[in-house]
Every structure is written in structure tokens, then in C-alpha cells.
Amino acid sequence: MKNSHKIITVALLVGLSSALFAEVKTAEDLLKSMKQEDITYAQLMEGMGNAASNIQRGIIGMNPYLVKRGIDFIRTHPAPKDKPWVIMAQEEREAFKETLVVMDKIMDEDVAKIEKALLQKDWAGAQEASQELDRTCISCHVAWKNNVKYIMK
To answer: What class does CATH assign to 3-8+37-147?
Structure first.
């Protein structure tokens, strides 16, 4: 595994609160907790991107319905038809699995902040929280995008 992945994974794990860390499941447990759909991991990521876009567009238009739709997808997104880590080289799969678990928790925290601001009609706060979600998504993408070895079909 490349050092950059180790550093990112460790930084993510250290950044979690102790209560959150105690709740972390395995990647296998995470998948079992989700409804499985006949989609690839890439298609799931496309859906997650669309959800983040709905949140942003909803905030810009002050449309709580659109924001809630994006939040709901991120919270309840399905599992892809194949295990997501199979897209990585064998030696990187364990680190990727850890990243999946951590990122799922962080995204849930991010959308909770957006939702809290939304309930208070704090559109500026919702935008700030949305930017946190964007940073979460982009950091994972940047860390792993060049290491994909297999594209699911």
C-alpha cells in the first residue's frame, strides 16, 4: 500500500471521536446493513455525487425538499452488487475497506450538520456543512482514484 493511503487512513481514524470509533463496523458489516442493488460501485458513486449536488442546489435555491432528498440518499444509499474493494489491487483492499467504513460515518456526520442547519433555516450554516461533505467526498476520491485496478461491469 502506498504511504499516502496509510497517512490518509490513519489521519481519518485519528480524527474520529472515541464514541464514533467504538461504533465502527467492518466493511463486510457495513454492506450487510444496506439494501443491495444491481448497480456497480461506480454507479453508486455517481448517485452519491448526484445526492451532494441535490444538497447544493437545494441550498442555493432555499429548497428544503431537494436538500432532504440528497441527505436521505447519502444516509440510506444501497450497497453495490459486488464488494466495492474488489476494484483495488489485492494489497490495497484492507486499507480501502477501512476507508469505506470511516467515510460512511463521516458522511453521516456531515449530512447531520446540514440537516441541523436546515431545520433552523440557517442556509449559510447549511452551505458551510455542505462544503464539509464536499471535502469528505473529494478527499476519498483523490486518495483512491488512481489506484482502481478493476472496473465492475
So the answer is: mainly alpha
Distance CA 89, CA 39 (A): 21
Kindly report the CA angle at 82 between 31 and 107, in degrees rounded to 5?
Answer: 45
Closest CA to 152 of 42, 77, 45: 42
Going residue by residue through the chain, which has 153 residues, state the pLDDT in tens, using 9 for 90 and above.
555 555 555 455 545 444 444 465 899 999 999 999 999 999 999 999 999 999 999 999 999 999 999 999 999 999 999 999 999 999 999 999 999 999 999 999 999 999 999 999 999 999 999 999 999 999 999 999 998 887 766
